[in-house]
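Please check this:
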Amino acid sequence: MTRLAIDIGGTFTDLILFNEKNGKLTAYKSLSTPSDPSSGVVNTINLSKIDTANISFFVHGGTTVINAITERKGVKTALITTLGFRDILGIMRGNRPDMYNLKPKKPTPFVDRKLRFEVKERVTSEGKILTPLNLESLDEIIDICKKNKVESIAIQFLHSYLFTENEKKCSEYIKKKFPEVSITISSDITREWREFERANTAVLNAYVQPIVLKYFDNLEKKLNDLGINCGFTAMQSNGGTTSFNGAKRQPITLVESGPAAGVNGAVLVGNLTNKKNIIYFDVGGTTTKCALIENGKPKVTTEYKLEWTRFNPGYPIRVPVTDLVEIGAGGGSIAWFDSGGSLKVGPQSAGADPGPSSYNKGGIEPTITDAKLITGVINPKNFASGQFELKKKLAEKAINKIASVLGVDLITAASSIVRVAEANMINALKLVSIQRGYDPRDFVLVAGGGGGPMHACTLGKELGVSEIIVPPYPGYFSAWGMLATDQRSDFAITSLIRSENADINKILSIFNKLEEDAKNYFLSNNDLDKNIIDFEKRIDMRYLGQEHTVTVTVTEKEFDIEKILKIFHLEHKKAYTFSLDNTSIEFVTFRLSASSNSPKPKIKEISNNYKIDDSILEKREVNFGEDGLHKATVYNRNKLPTGIEIDGPLIVEEDSTVTMVLPNQKLTVDNFGFLRIK
């Protein structure tokens, strides 16, 4: 039987097949189809020519949700909230990322003010009813929504994280009167406090839900038509998977599904190479993603913000998301000049359609891919598994726009584009490492994506990492990482308890309730047997008077108040360099991660009888940036002998990418086929 993983990127759709019998991995790539991503999925499966009856596992990752949000292509959405809270989406938070900007511009809410409605109801911060819900007042709201052709409604009431009944009653009433509308209630998505964050999360879920529902229904039909009848799962932002049913119910949990899968793949690489501290670096067609893995565990945050910049507060999402830094620098990123004449690269991208100029699909702007082609890094005849040949003359024509302004030759202009892009990339890498107090010398850099290995050696050298690792199939790395993923869902509830009033039995009862919620969720979504679920428990805690919290992981052995408090003091000191041992502590939010221990590919060690001469393809002139132009030997990765050591400069070619090894760097091929560069 065969396990299948597919990842839909901005430029390419990647597919990985894992044969459970012989342990063989095979990979396929085709251009994404932005107008209907499911067509790209079908095209790639057809390209593989697999016997679909043998597929035992299917996992899907992609950009459907994030694209709908960033391109503002969701549905018309309304918000119903507690009387007095209509403007919560517009008011947002009082703080701002740029503290010296006295006239900051707040992001535009995803719901027009005329479609934000109030109803009489009120619950206290203790979860007790103060004002009963007035259901009759919903009739006028429903009529207005129908007249305005609203397709989705978000419901978020004050303190509904403690008392969910009013949101549920409101939803049921609307569904009876307006059955065709999609409804999201905030307490279904998160039971954490922070009214604005919960409202925004519910609104974004409602904004994309009809689109995701239609997409997965359409995809499921096409997969069934192909003869694939196994259970279908979708990659989530938290690093786990859920069923298609779960994805339809909570599509906002898919917002960063592809990058999260790549981080899981990096963890697997670390396990195989005995490297626990990893900086993951992925360059795709549109973006660069970076993440830090410490002691074998990725960082996961519940304070993720879409479209955040140092000038823009963005849109907060209160669901667990693998902690990533993402910038608009990928193979399709366009080079341009700002009003001051400075060369910039990205965030605008040529994407898959029309794509870089060298794709010969109508693109005319210079991109990173065009620049890498001009500098000799990319072989025009071996791009994207050789599915089409890049046109160097078209790349030259596009790069000449930059060269003529700078007054330099084509190679210098192309190198300048690469240097600017890599300056952006190194800043992103520093954001997840140096600026968070980590020393890159204690980490290895794992490179994935179709562009990651082209830049990894340059950036690894500048960052000072101990080693660079390029796994097999780096251009398919997110799909590869999906095969190493457990089914997972996260649950949380805010309940403020002071340490002097803390009762271990009360804390246990909170976690027991979360466990029951988790089991019911898995069963309702046909995810898995409730008896094979593993639970991880965490508590957000803070000193009395603080605003922010520190998350503490607790095990069964540590279910003692004094032990939990001791761990908190240690974690706070680790995060902020101090602890206040005699200060009262608040337990704030209780978190539970429920996951299955799903079967994973067993990557086998390899050995081959190739000789180094078997792997040499050619010698060609390559510009190595600051190290200048060199006549580099080009190797076929598939024929590199295991255990071989080769001094740079050199190029390693494979179906999905190119690895560029600099002068004074050494390449080794280990027993798993990983390229190890120091």
